[in-house]
Write a structure and sequence with these properties.
Layout lengths: L34 H21 L7 H25 L11 H26 L9 H31 L4
InterPro entries: MAL, Marvel, MARVEL-CKLF_proteins
Protein name: CKLF8 protein
Subcellular location: Membrane
Length: about 170
């Protein structure tokens, strides 16, 4: 028995007008005037001090300083990333991401891991290891505790924001 073949075709013409793109990158210059914004800048500046003070020594000979370097560099890069996201207001263009929860998890984990790293840093600093590197290690330990307190403050503000379910 012969089969009948019916083919249906549809065509669509889609032309994108790329010149009429309305996606502009916003800039929130007021963010740096808020307490969380100031804390982020402080975290970046002092976090840079933490890892450069250690990187200028023979830290790789001592296991504790390797951990401090990892935490300091990891959270330094992520903090710069989040500062760019907040400054450019990228979070408004991606509403599927729960930014208040992400901010709380980021700052909370940074606080906990930086606290551990600061304790390890402080407990690893002794004059017996190497007199030449003592001052750099002691300074990095001090700044690690200051950065830890900054992340604690940002964790508090992130918690308040998460609790109220509004973006900062």
């Amino acid at each position: 028995r012969p089969r009948s073949h019916t083919v249906t075709t549809t065509s669509s013409s889609f032309t994108a007008d790329l010149s009429a793109s309305s996606s502009t990158l916003a800039y929130d210059k007021e963010f740096l005037r808020t307490v969380p914004g100031l804390l982020m800048v402080t975290e970046i500046v002092l976090g840079l001090l933490v890892w450069t003070l250690i990187a200028g020594t023979e830290y790789f000979l001592y296991l504790g300083f390797g951990w401090v370097m990892f935490v300091a560099v990891f959270y330094w890069v992520l903090t710069i990333f989040f500062l760019i996201i907040y400054m450019t207001m990228t979070y408004t263009g991606i509403p599927q991401v729960p930014w208040t929860t992400v901010g709380l998890c980021f700052n909370g984990s940074a606080f906990v891991l930086y606290l551990i790293a600061a304790i390890v840093d402080a407990s690893s600093v002794t004059k017996d290891l190497d007199n030449h590197n003592y001052n750099s290690w002691a300074a990095s330990s001090f700044f690690a505790f200051v950065v830890t307190s900054c992340y604690a403050g940002n964790t508090y503000f992130s918690f308040i924001s998460w609790r109220s379910r509004t973006l900062q």
